[in-house]
Model the fold of this input.
Amino acid sequence: MTTLAAVDCGTNSIRLLISDITEVDGVLEITELHRVMEIVRLGEGVDATRRLSSKALARVRSALTNFAELMRAENVTAVRMVATSATRDAENRDEFFSMTREILAPWGAEAEVISGEEEASLSFRGAIDDLHDQPEPFCVIDVGGGSTEIIVGKHDGTVLGCESVAMGSVRLTERFLLSDPATEEEIEQARAYVADLCEKVRGAVPIDEARTIVGCAGTFTTLSALAQGLETYDPAAIHLSVLRFNALRALTSSVVQSDAHSLAENPVMHPGRADVFAGGAVIVDGLMDLFDSALGGTRDNPLEFYISEKDILDGIVAGLVDTHIPH
Done:
C-alpha cells in the first residue's frame, strides 16, 4: 500500500486530499482517507495590489503546517502541491514558494504554479472519474476564487479545448460587488464582465459539442447543498447530484440579493465562503447563459449541471499514481 497526498492552494482556500493506493487482483484502487479544506483567502487584495499580504501568507503557513502534520501521521510517501490564480498574479510570490518549500521539506516538495490549462486538465481528470455512464464529450467547469477553468474532453482524457478566464468569486467581489448586498448597478457591471469573458470561452472551447456539463469546486457544490435543502454539508448527497438550469436560476437570483450574514447562517455554507458567494453565483448565471445559447436549452427542455465532489485534488492524486506506482 502507498499513501499519496495532493494540496491545492487557490485564491480563496487551501485543500488537502490524502489517499491510499492498493492493488487488488492486478487493479489499482484509490481510497480517500482525508479531504480537508481551510479558507485562507490567499488572493485577498491581489487583484488591486498585485501582492500577497503578510496576513494571507500567515494563514497559509498555519493551514499548510497542519496539513503536513496530518500527512506525517498517515505516512504519506509523496505529495504534490499546486498553486493557482493568486500566485500567478503576485509580485512577491517567491515568499510563498519559500514557505511551502520549508514546510514540505520532508517530502522534497514545494508549491508549483501551474498554468490555467494544466489546472483545467487536472480538474477534468478528477471531475469525470465517476461519470462514465454519462454521454461524452464532457464540459467540466471549475469556478475558483480568482479564475474559472472550462475544459471539453472525452472519457479517455482527450482534450478538445480548454480555457482559463479571470473570473472567480473573490475577484468579482473585490472588483464589482462592493456593497452587502450588492446594488443593482454593481450586479449589472459584474454580469457584463462575466458575459464578455464567456464570449472569449465560446471562441476558444468547443462547448457546443458538450453532451454532459459538470460543475465542480465550492461554488457548485454549495449551490447543490442549498438546492437540496440539506441540514448539513453532505458530500455523499452532493456528489453526482443534478441542478437544472431553470430551478438553479431562481436560487442564484436569491443568493445575489442576499447579504453575507444571511448566507453564513445557513449550515451548509462554509463561513469563509459567504462573503464571496454572490460573486460565484453571478459567474454560474453567466455560464448558464453561455450554454443556453450554445446548446439550445429551453424552459421546457432545460440544460443541467452534474455536480462532482471530485476535482483537481483527485486529478493530482491520479497523476501521482501514474508517476510513483508501476502498473
In short: Residues 176 and 188 are 9 Å apart (CA to CA). The chain has a mean pLDDT of 91. The chain has 13 helices and eleven strands.
